[in-house]
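Response to reviewer comment R2.3. The reviewers asked that we include at least one raw input/output pair. We reproduce the pair for Major facilitator superfamily (MFS) profile domain-containing protein here without editing.
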Amino acid sequence: MPFAGVIAGVLTDNLGRLRVLQMSTLPQFIGWVIIATASNTWMLFAGRLVTGFAGALVIVPSMVYVSEISSPKIRGALQSISSTFYNAGLLTTYLKGWFLSWRVIAWLAVAYSVISLLCVLFIPESSVWLLKKGKSGDAQKSFEWFTKYRQKYESETLNESPQLQNMEIIKEEPFSLKTRIRWTLKQFALPTGYKPFLIMAALMVIQEFSGAHVIMMNAVIFFEGIGTNFDPYLASVYMATMRVGMAVTQIWLMRRFNRRALLMVSCVGMTICMIISAVYTKWIQDGSTTRNWVPLCMLILYFMFFTGLISIPLVVTTEVFPLPIRGLASNLISAILYIMLFGALQSFYPLYNALGGLSGVQYFYGLVSAVGFIFVFLFLPETHNKDLWVIERYFLHNTMYFSMKGKHLIPCH
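Raw output as returned:
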């Protein structure tokens, strides 16, 4: 998946956001066909590798695409919809696993890939990317397609769009590969490149080592280890259901509240829930309490709060980078996310042994969540209701959010 993220970054900036989404349906289709027809373990491995590649290929380009076609007031809500459907897919997969064979589920996934292709065949490319490529005619048509039913934009032209009128659109020239690489590295060396990159990379480390994905992917093992008398498979469904409900709520929250506030509440809630779960896990294992329902409730609430930490960083990632490197930088951040996810998963048993069991592991995850609160408070800029060009200008003069220098650079709509 990190490898696919880098490839997606190059393709997103050079072939277009929409073209990458269309291309991703092919490996998705092939991978699930391999799994559905598998006759040995190696075919399952091969199919999983291909579907993993397809998944990494589609996530960030879709978020970049949405960030460029939507107005600032609804951008966060629209991007949160992807998290809603991700969690809905997770839940339906758990439910299908109760009464369908894995081959039938794989064939259904093949059908989903065909539906995905049909959905992205009849929509236009991002007008921002088209302008960057010098295709002003196509950019105008794309803009008109997306703003057709917005009354306030009835007489507005592409150049009058508040999303574009102050943005520096750098038209690409047919440079040599060496010159293009050098120019791209130069963009990353600017404050508008390296500052958001470091901030978002650190946030991805915090996201993965806060433990949510580790628990989710080892849910049965985790709940059995705590010592509750609940069916661990049913507990997994409870967690997935909570995530779907919160993902839907997140769409409304992203329209009403600032990104920073939502992220800080998310981190605080995760910290409290994980610490309480750790305390009761220790008491249950020592025989000091019979309230073995408490860790389950705390972990379900923990996943409720985690909805913010998993969805908002992906939204912010597609907002903070300048246009010339937005696709590549966003996908590089996703590659870092996949590497951190791998590292977090592989660290579970070493942490389990080093920290004295599940209670120690939960204390560690709670500590990382608390660090996340401090980091967001100090470094993450606010992007809610901000035009993309305004967010880009912020990094020219600011590193810490509460630095006095240049605070006026991020006005609210």
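The radius of gyration is 22 Å. Residues 1-122 form one domain. Further pairs are available on request from the corresponding author.
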